Amino acid sequence: MSDVKNILLVGVGGQGTILVSRILTEGLIQAGFDVKMSEVHGMAQRGGSVTTQVRYGKKVYSPIIGKGQADILVSFEKMEAVRWIEYLKPDGIVVVNNYEIPSLPIASGKEEYPQGLIEALQGSFKTVVVDAGTIAEELGNIKTQNIVLFGALVKALGLDEIDWVKIIRETIKPKLVDINIKAYNKGRDI
Amino acid sequence: MKQLMSGNEAIARGAYEAGVKVAAAYPGTPSTEILENIVEYKDDIYCEWAPNEKVATEVAIGASIAGVRSLSAMKHVGLNVAADPIFTYSYLGVNAGYVLITADDPSMHSSQNEQDNRYYAKFAKIPMIEPSDSQESKEFLDEAFRISEQYDTPVLYRVTTRVCHSKSMVELGERKEVGFKKYERNIPKYVATPANAKVAHVRVEKRLKDLEEYANTSPLNKVEYNKNTKVGIVTASIAYQYAREVFGDNASYLKLGFTYPLPMKLIKEFASKFETVYVVEELEPFMEEQMKAAGVSCIGKELIPNMYELNPDIIAKALLNKEAETKTVDAKVVGRPPVLCPGCPHRGFFYTMSKRKNTVVTSDIGCYTLGGLPPINAIDTCICMGAGFSAGMGMAKAFEVSGRDTKVFGVVGDSTFFHSGITGAIDIVYNKGKMVPVVLDNRITGMTGHQENPGTGKTLMGEDAIQIDPVDVLKAVGYKTVKVVDPCDLKAMDEVVLEAENSAEPYAIVTRRPCVLIKGLPPFKTKCIVNKDKCKKCKMCLKVGCPAIYFKDGTSYIDQSMCLGCEVCMQVCKFDAIEKVGE
């Protein structure tokens, strides 16, 4: 159990967490790890909170983890980072996209989007803040946010021995490869 | 070659390798991707989306009788629909092998209940196999077909959400060409008259005894002894992975892949070696009850909950009183419930219904359950597929016999209409129901991720098909008026609803507009935008519950990256403050 690393990706349905987990698992497999991954389908995908868990090591049993088990939490949205933070090990790293997607109670004016989330995370955990939205917009495609975050994840985990650029080339549609490699490098440089 | 596969992909691969020739299903989370992946092997396997699980199962049973290996797949509640044929096919027995795959959903990630379908094996007196990861999901299927043919029985193949939707490594094999078995008329075997069934039942009881013998030596049941362990764990399915994660080499395991009939001899022998025996199983005490009845001393549901899915944490806490250290942060979060998508055609209909007084809306399984969420709150019930019409009929009759004038609108989707809405629609006409059936026709099976259905004009295998129009069906069964309306045209929607409830003759509504997530739709060229100068901050636009609309710093905004220009909000705004932009 001790050599198994746990990655928790969280976000909002439609943000591209699944593509990131596909690239991630492909790279980990090529590097010779046993890998298990778990994701949600169905109703939660309709604008709800979504999670993907990736576990890798010499031998992995459970495809899911419980609270206090993730080595790294990558959140594609600010509030989601706080929602899932209990799943992070006390000495784990949180990579958080400095990006807000209001949920319906907020959008409808019933609740306020909570303030001070980044500061709260920084107060308790090693936190990497990524302006993936701004970076992706500068690159010319807001949808590449997920790959910017993926770059930041690779750096935080120190998974440098894997040729991620090659895997991005193999996984993503040809016409979107170049922009996504740029997005990946931007994420790596944070 | 090894590949990372989900359990569902692995089952599809397993069907291919086991020489399956016919597969049928109705989509339902978490089972949907089984047939979506079987279609990859369509050169070797005929596969179809059937209108419902009962039809799918009967198609597969027919194929099995005719002599080719077949399967049907469904979510747990789908087996309730398919229960009728499977109970009788248990008595008849197979010709070529037949496997029914049930995908249960502990924790109800996308379901209306969390029934434990293992009891169906006991109830229908058929053997059950439970894989615990993707490799087993593929591999065990071959043994399932072998058992089906050797013991002349349908086999229940039970998986759960975490087996279906988690991915792990799978070693691929070759397809085994099993050919087809000769079909010959055999009336005593295949015609379930009372006289034949009486004989068949004796055979079924004998078969269960034979299967228990098999269970004790089945290659699907494995003992993993670890040295110097005082704890023995009897477990199956995904719960094995969790138990293994928590106890590691500090316990020994009896890991069952063949779970009905239970290998009681093997269990007793295993249990006798340990001071403590735990039964680690998800949901109900299915194995534990039988073990205790057989006199095996064990601990299970006294400590492990019988609700919701398990995980390593729950087991560690329940059995070892160990909890991982966690840290929280000092911040609050707001809930993020699922919601009708921006541009969803259902929004216009549900918004229309949300404004009405003294009206009941009986809804159904699918995206329309989302019509029950705030701020729309426009539905009264959701029971099961098809009940949108028939439960509505019952409510209408109850209001009628008790002298109340509450209006009833019953809702089903297009796929649900073909699944089991048609029978309800017939009941309303036949028995003079004072209610209005509404088909929310978005041209696809939506919630499960866009599968073809009898209304789409395409089959699972990608062939063109006769496109069955719910309008024609409703007219054919006796609705004098069937009005087709664009649900995003709120004025038209209001008019049709009013006309329908005042109609003396059977009246049905079909709202028609495609799901915005369908691939290959023409691009959405217009968007809606708030003109800040005109916005009176009345928040009316927020009442349509669109995730693209938000209120910030005293004004409404529309997220331009999400808006698809459906114009529902635009029609709701009394001050013309929402404008159309684009072509």
What key phrases describe this protein's structure?
heterodimer; A: 190 residues; alpha/beta; Pyruvate-ferredoxin Oxidoreductase, domain 3; six-stranded mixed beta sheet; 8 helices; 6 strands; 23% strand; B: 583 residues; Rossmann fold; 4 domains; seven-stranded mixed beta sheet; six-stranded parallel beta sheet; 19% strand; globular
Explain what the structure shows:
The complex is a heterodimer of chains A (190) and B (583). Chain A is an alpha/beta fold and 190 residues long. Chain A has one domain (5-97, 115-188): Pyruvate-ferredoxin Oxidoreductase, domain 3. In chain A, 40% of the residues lie in helices and 23% in strands. Chain A has helices at residues 17-30, 78-83, 104-107, 117-124, 132-139, 145-157, 164-171, 174-188; strands at residues 5-12, 34-39, 49-57, 70-75, 88-97, 126-130. The longest helix of chain A is centred in the C-terminal third of the chain and has 15 residues, at 174-188. The radius of gyration of chain A is 16 Å and the shape is globular. Chain B has four domains: 2-217, Rossmann fold (3-Layer(aba) Sandwich), CATH 3.40.50.970; 222-320, Rossmann fold (3-Layer(aba) Sandwich); 346-512, 3-Layer(aba) Sandwich (Rossmann fold); 526-582, Alpha-Beta Plaits (2-Layer Sandwich), CATH 3.30.70. Chain B has a seven-stranded mixed β-sheet with strand order 3-2-4-5-7-6-12. In chain B, α10 packs parallel to α12 and α16 packs parallel to α17 (414-430). Classes of the chains: A alpha/beta (190), B alpha/beta (583). The interface between A and B is large, with 61 and 61 residues. β2 of chain A pairs antiparallel with β8 of chain B, so a sheet runs across the interface.
